[in-house]
TrEMBL record:
Name of protein: Flavin reductase like domain-containing protein
Keywords: Flavoprotein
Cofactor(s) in the UniProt record: FMN
Signal peptide: none
Pfam families cross-referenced by the UniProt entry: Flavin_Reduct
Organism: Listeria grayi DSM 20601
Residues in Flavin reductase like domain copies: 17-187
Source organism superkingdom: Bacteria
Source organism phylogeny: Bacteria, Bacillati, Bacillota, Bacilli, Bacillales
InterPro entries per record: Flavin_Rdtase-like_dom, Flavoredoxin, Split_barrel_FMN-bd
GO terms assigned for molecular function: FMN binding; oxidoreductase activity, acting on the CH-NH group of donors, NAD or NADP as acceptor
SUPFAM superfamilies linked: FMN-binding split barrel
Family affiliation: Belongs to the flavoredoxin family.
């Protein structure tokens, strides 16, 4: 075991390696669907928790009562994700987003090249091209200064057949989710070993 030498750093972000999520929601008033790229989440049993900027259309839709679908893209889909990274579904672009070069986009599905897909018993469209789709209902919203922590209850999990093994379980060797690490896109497709609970 190698003992490493460390030094203090000032990181612009601490995205030390998170899966990219594409949150789809719908404006309950206009019926317009929106895609919000996210990189802050964790799951436990049948719950998923996300961090989301308060000044985003996705959050406004959630506040207004929208269900949610968490779409998990594959690593090769990073370019489609980046096409909407600097877009917002808010007609009035917030000042801080204007400074970062964000522009209004009424149809992120068209811009990204992704296709909407209906999920039974869910009003919100999923992204047809994403290998993993998680339909969820909002349970709790905790607002902080600039972001919100949203707790969701998972109602359905849909996985592409191409990432399933013969037992209908997700095959980690066939599945390479897109990872966001210090604002760079990375692939998570190198198998190092298995946890003792793998496929249990």
């Amino acid at each position: 075991m190698i003992v490493m030498k460390h030094q203090a750093v000032k990181a612009n972000s601490l995205y030390y390696g998170f899966p990219v999520l594409l949150l789809t929601t719908i404006d309950p008033i206009t019926g317009v669907a929106n895609i919000t790229p996210l990189s802050s989440s964790w799951t436990l049993i049948d719950k998923i928790v996300i961090g989301i900027a308060q000044q985003s259309q996705g959050f406004r839709n959630i506040q207004a009562g929208s269900q949610a679908v968490i779409n998990v893209p594959a690593s090769h889909q990073w370019n489609e994700v980046e096409k909407i990274a600097q877009k917002t579904g808010m007609l009035e672009v917030p000042a801080y987003k204007q400074k970062m070069g964000y522009t209004y986009d009424a149809d992120k599905f068209a811009t990204s090249g992704f296709s909407p897909k209906h999920i039974p018993d869910t009003a919100v469209p999923a992204i047809a091209e994403c290998p993993l789709q998680i339909a969820a209902d909002i349970e709790n919203i905790t607002e902080r200064e600039q972001f919100a922590i949203v707790e969701l209850s998972i109602s359905q999990v849909l996985a592409a057949e191409s990432i399933l093994d013969q037992n209908g379980q997700i095959n980690s060797e066939a599945w390479s989710p897109l990872i966001y690490q210090f604002r760079a896109y990375k692939a998570a497709d190198t198998l190092l070993g298995y946890n003792f609970r793998y496929n249990k």
